[in-house]
């Protein structure tokens, strides 16, 4: 890291904090702080939605996955057109009819207060684990090696990232979060382009790093639903479709961005911008992985006897930035990686505050629920959420597997179970609390069984990517049947 790299990082941090200060005076009520007055730009919200869902884990794991296992995982972008149709025309119109701030308020209307609390609690568990993992991965995998620090610096780096995020999130609310997310999305795009360009320049052309034949350690393509291979196209597209549907249909971070627009049409534009940006940057990150692999095959690293390119794949992208990037550009690419972390963290913090406030703190009392008092309360709540995430971040040392498997096994564990509640509330007229509880618990158990089958000695014989469809199917089926058996003679009215 040269002085110019440090200057770039300092300028980036200053920009984020400056945006927070700029929007600080525009928050007059809780609605402003959490939803931006429900009149924000769909384009900015779309970039924010993309940046929110593409964390440091995704930004680093995509090149690492490409290096270690090949391009099968990137074929998941084929699911996006189907996702847009299902979410844009099936879920968004229903969600936009609800006069809510927290997504879990609508669960109470259909399934009772207990299910609302359960849904909100599942979201909090999911997002606290997600934010903690982002903090740990960014500090341990990126900053420690890039800055040449020891492992004892990891807690302090987690604190630093959390504090910067809390600063601009607590000052500017959702407006600052969305605007910084948009800036960060563009920076992430630039970071991938710069890396590919530098490798191409240093090696003398694309042909020098592009593989002339299929690398022996890459997984061979599998285009069906083969459960015996690590990643198969059919189940990957199905799992990706379900993940996006579940996330956009039940996760406060996504729904909060839809609710921040004027109407369903604007919310669909938000979704479209997010998905287009995702396809572009996923493709660039995949190219980055191929380019980094080509570079280190031409310039081999000094690996120990028990190390291979596959075993250190997640570290090769950061290693290239540290060792080979020209002065100044390494700071910019590192800023792009930090963008991926801070955009997700700020969105997670803001959405978690919304759920804590609306579903727990001010749920049974309107006192202080709006106006300057509410803004002050939400700012303090932002700092509380940030420090809880920091405290949880070091628990990630107990999770095994590369970054892609980490995302599936920990971060996505509760995504489908949470959506089970929304599926029952929105699409099953006879759904009730008893069936919802059964569906939620069964779905969580199914997700754990698939994700950790080897650790639990179950030996189900299927890959971890089957977790999403299996847990969703189990939850929906048992929740629907359980509701029918619990109260078949008193169907509830569908959500208007």
Key descriptive features of the protein:
globular, 72% helix, 19 helices, 496 residues, mainly alpha, Sodium/glucose cotransporter, 2 domains
What do these coordinates show?
The chain is mostly helical and about 500 residues long. It folds into two domains: about 5-400, Sodium/glucose cotransporter (Up-down Bundle); about 415-495, no CATH class. Helices cover about 70% and strands about 0% of the residues. It contains 19 helices and no strands. The chain has helices at about 5-25, 30-35, 40-55, 55-70, 80-95, 105-110, 115-145, 155-205, 205-210, 235-250, 250-260, 265-300, 315-325, 330-360, 370-390, 405-410, 415-425, 435-450, 465-485. α3 packs across α14 and α7 (about 115-145) runs antiparallel to α17 (about 415-425).
């Amino acid at each position: 890291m040269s002085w110019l790299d440090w200057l770039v990082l300092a300028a980036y941090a200053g920009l984020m904090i400056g945006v927070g200060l700029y929007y600080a005076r525009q928050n007059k009520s809780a609605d402003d702080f959490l939803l931006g007055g429900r009149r924000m730009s769909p384009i900015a919200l779309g970039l924010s939605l993309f940046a929110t869902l593409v964390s440091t884990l995704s930004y680093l794991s995509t090149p690492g996955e490409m290096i270690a296992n090949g391009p099968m995982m990137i074929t998941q972008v084929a699911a996006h057109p189907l996702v847009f149709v299902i979410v844009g025309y099936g879920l968004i119109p229903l969600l936009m009819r609800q006069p809510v701030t927290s997504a879990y308020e609508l669960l109470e209307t259909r399934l009772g207060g207990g299910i609302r609390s359960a849904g909100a609690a599942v979201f909090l568990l999911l997002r606290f684990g997600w934010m903690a993992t982002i903090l740990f991965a960014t500090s341990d995998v990126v900053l420690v090696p890039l800055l040449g620090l020891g492992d004892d610096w990891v807690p302090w780096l987690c604190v630093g990232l959390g504090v910067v995020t809390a600063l601009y999130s607590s000052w500017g609310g959702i407006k600052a979060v969305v605007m910084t997310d948009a800036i960060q999305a563009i920076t992430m795009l630039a970071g991938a382009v710069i890396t590919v360009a530098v490798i191409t320049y240093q090696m003398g052309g694309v042909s020098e790093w592009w593989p002339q034949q299929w690398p022996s350690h890459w997984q061979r393509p599998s285009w069906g639903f083969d459960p015996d291979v690590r990643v198969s196209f059919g189940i990957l597209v199905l799992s990706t479709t379900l993940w996006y549907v579940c996330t956009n249909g039940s996760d406060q971070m996504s729904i909060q961005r839809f609710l921040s627009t004027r109407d369903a049409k604007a919310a669909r534009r938000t979704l479209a911008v997010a998905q287009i940006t995702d396809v572009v940057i996923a493709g660039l990150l995949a190219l980055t992985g191929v380019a980094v692999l080509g570079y280190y095959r031409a310039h081999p690293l000094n690996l120990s006897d028990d190390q291979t390119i596959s075993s250190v794949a997640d570290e090769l992208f950061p290693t290239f930035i540290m060792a080979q990037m020209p002065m100044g550009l390494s700071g910019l690419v590192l800023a792009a990686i930090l963008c991926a972390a801070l955009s997700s963290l700020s969105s997670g913090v803001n959405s978690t505050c919304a759920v804590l406030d609306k579903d727990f703190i001010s749920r049974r009392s309107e006192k202080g629920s709006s106006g300057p008092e509410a803004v002050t309360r939400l700012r303090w709540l932002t700092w509380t959420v940030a420090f809880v995430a920091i405290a949880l971040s070091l628990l990630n040392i107990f999770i095994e597997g590369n970054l892609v498997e980490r995302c599936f096994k920990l971060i996505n564990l509760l995504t489908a179970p949470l959506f089970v509640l929304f599926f029952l509330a929105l699409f099953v007229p006879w759904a009730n609390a008893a069936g919802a509880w059964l569906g939620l618990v069964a779905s969580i158990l199914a997700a754990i069984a698939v994700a950790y089958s080897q650790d639990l000695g179950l030996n189900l014989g299927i890959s971890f990517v089957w977790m999403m469809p299996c847990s969703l199917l189990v939850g929906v089926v048992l929740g629907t049947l359980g509701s029918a058996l619990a109260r078949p003679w008193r169907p509830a009215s569908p959500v208007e």
